[in-house]
Amino acid sequence: MLLKRLSAHHLTEQDVTPEAVYQDRRLILKGLGLGAATLAFPTQAGVLDLFSGDKPAPVATRALNIHAAARPEGLILTPEEKATTHNNFYELGTDKGDPARNGHYLKPEPWTLKVEGEVAKPFTLDVWDLINKSTLEERIYRLRCVEAWSMVLPWSGIALADLIRRAEPTSRAKFVAFETLYDPEQLPGQASRSLGGGIDYPYVEGLRLDEAMHPLSFLAMGLYGKALPAQNGAPIRLVVPWKYGFKSIKSIVSIRLVEEMPPTTWNLLAPNEYGFYANVNPAVDHPRWSQASERFIGEGGIFGAKRQPTLPFNGYADEVASLYQGMDLRKWY
Ligand SMILES: Nc1nc2c(c(=O)[nH]1)N[C@H]1C(S)=C(S)[C@@H](COP(=O)(O)O)O[C@H]1N2
Ligand SMILES: [Mo]
């Protein structure tokens, strides 16, 4: 795993079938009295059980005032303890369990978020003031990581467009640039190549202005009706459900309206593997693995979790495909 951390590449095949899964499979197969020869079967079946031992306790964060969403039919929520212990937040460590373990370093309160750049009315938002004074909207979204695993998560927050509109973008604003907090005391991976993967921090992301203004683009301050745990991007993070998970930047301190397409962290690291757009697309494979299907992280009994087809735009094509009319999505991956 150390090699992965020190390389410029996001992922290895090991991430697509995480080490933890192999470990668990070995234990489970041992328990069933099956030998190593049977390993080939669960690997292909996409069987997933991240927790063979004691389940971790749910994360204690405060309950929020939310307007709950109806539970959609046909979508199964990922269990809270999996959503909060299987994370990508490299500033808190590159292994899936690191962000939950190291989350105590991050102090999400107080927190200010700036909306600035090409706007008539830049402002600084007191995030906890917003959380405490609002009824947040709940949205149940699919999350598809570029590593070919997926979850279904109940976020609470506000539409990104609401915040951007308040700042009154000028006619020069064409893109939106986002930045994660830079503070190695709170995000120790920023000061340690071995913990943080050798990325140039702060983590940065971006959207075209019309993508940012789309009603599905969301700023989440809660998960499962409670304030975001550190590992999920406390206290405020972006959620763009039709794009690969790395676009959904965590623990943001700045939203800047800009004229030019802004740099984005994974594109800077490996431009041939991660584009600016990063729309979920089962027809365009990652150079090192297929994107046609994904492992859904659900209840995850040994025969429960399954590999399922990945949907164009992660299932949101009806809402967002028109944003990309006339674009060659192989070129603009
Ligand atoms: N600042 C920051 N934001 C980040 C990441 C990161 O490493 N640092 N990882 C991204 C990736 S790859 C994914 S899949 C999602 C995971 O969000 P979750 O842990 O809440 O499921 O966060 C994204 N946002
Ligand atoms: Mo991801």
From TrEMBL:
SUPFAM superfamilies per UniProt: Oxidoreductase molybdopterin-binding domain
Co-factor(s): Mo-molybdopterin
Domain of life: Bacteria
Keyword match RNA-binding: no
HAMAP family (UniProt xref): MsrP
Protein localization: Periplasm
Annotated protein name in UniProt: Protein-methionine-sulfoxide reductase catalytic subunit MsrP
Cofactor binding note from Swiss-Prot or TrEMBL: Binds 1 Mo-molybdopterin (Mo-MPT) cofactor per subunit.
Main location: periplasm
Subunit structure: Heterodimer of a catalytic subunit (MsrP) and a heme-binding subunit (MsrQ).
Domain Oxidoreductase molybdopterin-binding: 107-266
EC number in record: 1.8.5.-
